[in-house]
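EI: anyone free to look at a 156-residue chain?
SC: sure, send it
EI:
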Amino acid sequence: MTTINIGDTAPHFNLPSEGEIDTSLDSASLAQPYVIYFYPKDDTPGCTKEAIGFTAHKAEFDALGVKIIGVSKDTQAKHNKFICKHSLDLTLVSDEEGTLCESYGVWVEKSLYGRKYMGIERATFLVDAEGKIAHIWRKVKVNGHVEDVLEKAKAL
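SC: here you go
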């Protein structure tokens, strides 16, 4: 498993986002800070609450020049339905092959009722304008998380 730390260069990627348009991020092309958050599955309670939370605070992130990007292994068609159903104002990236999840070290072994399986660890990374990891949240609890990320973004 890949381990990513504060100060590391954020992994580059080029993956589908809404409307089948590819989202490509690297420090050279973006040149702005961004939040990239990983979540297990569209339209589940925690994932929905997190996405709605980021949408509710989007204007504040925009004022700071911070882009918000959500990533799961769901298809882009599922992302588009999720966006429409909950009026989300986010970029959601489809990582069906799991390469970006693995690059960030969020594709992990999980356990539910004693059954072990592989899945996405809910995690968030704040990347500065130089493309370096500025802050990491692992095993995220949704309540209060978006507000915490916003406070760290203000400190960039």
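EI: The chain has one domain: 33-154.
SC: 👍
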